[in-house]
Design brief:
Layout (H helix, E strand, L loop, with lengths): L1 H11 L24 E12 L15 E12 L2 E11 L6 E12 L9 E11 L8 E13 L2 E14 L8 E11 L4 E10 L1 E2 L10 E10 L5 E10 L7 E10 L1
Antiparallel strand pairs: 1-2, 1-13, 2-3, 3-4, 4-5, 5-6, 6-7, 7-8, 8-9, 8-10, 9-11, 11-12, 12-13
Length: 252
């Protein structure tokens, strides 16, 4: 019961957007080990999304997103990630979408902090047909903690547009939260929340915000592999209603 209370608290204490539905993931604080490289494929399919163009963006209904992420660890506390976004769909929706770069630093384990802490900064571009804001910056603090079988990660993310309709909106608040519980040594079940509430102190009306909740599973059968999958539902008219996703990663 105490674990359920802690999980509920983590969701309630934040104002409840996935990363434009190309990389639907709540980050953990650990960086890739020094000298190692992680290659990940992020795949998702929008079961129920938008059917009309908005701000020049193509509709999202029945589209597949495939993102390749390559992350290299340079030191025990510093890594750099590279993203290549791709879309597959009819009506001109099959295309290379854009790329981002993401350096990240973490608090070294030698500091013996009671929680894991890291911060990433992600910058890049994307085509206007797939994202009206074509040049963006994301600043993502990451705090996580494992209590026996319970794991919680909080990503209170800030996003800024440098080109597009949101260029004058300042930094928007896009919190992501994950809570999971190890039901076996291999399988962890949990919830993942993705949101975007609008600019600080000038929040959008609720129905114009983004709120998605995923039921997700992590498989931990080998330290070299990462497997995460889930199905999510959007709660507002501004959010895709149903998405399935899977992430497969391999360390080298």
């Amino acid at each position: 019961m105490k674990y359920l209370c802690l999980l509920a608290f983590a969701f309630i204490t934040l104002q409840l957007k996935a990363q434009d539905n190309y990389e639907i993931q709540v980050y953990g604080s650990e960086t890739v080990e020094k000298g190692n490289t992680m290659v990940e494929l992020h795949s998702n399919y929008t079961i129920n999304g938008s059917n009309t163009a908005t701000n020049g963006e193509l509709p999202t209904n029945h589209v597949v997103h495939e993102t390749i992420e390559i992350t290299h660890g340079w030191t025990p506390w510093f890594e750099t990630g590279f993203y290549f976004f791709n879309s597959i769909g009819d009506g001109g929706r099959t295309a290379y979408v854009g790329s981002h770069i993401r350096p990240r630093v973490a608090a070294p384990q030698s500091w013996n902090w009671p929680v894991g802490v890291s911060i990433s900064t992600e910058f890049g571009f994307q085509k206007s047909a797939f994202s009206a804001n074509t040049s963006t910056l994301e600043i993502r603090p990451i705090v996580d903690k494992k209590w026996n079988k319970l794991y919680i990660s909080v990503n209170p993310t800030l996003e800024k547009s440098f080109a597009g309709p949101d260029v004058n909106r300042g930094f928007t608040f896009s919190p992501n939260v994950k809570g999971s519980y190890d039901v076996t040594k291999v399988v962890a079940l949990g919830l993942e929340y993705y949101g975007s509430t609008g600019p600080f102190f000038h929040y959008d009306a609720f129905n114009q915000q983004d709120h998605q909740l995923f039921v997700a599973t992590d498989l931990n059968f080998d330290p070299k592999w990462e497997v995460n999958g889930g199905i999510g539902y959007g709660f507002t008219s501004n959010t895709d209603k149903a998405i399935v996703k899977i992430i497969i990663g391999r360390r080298f």
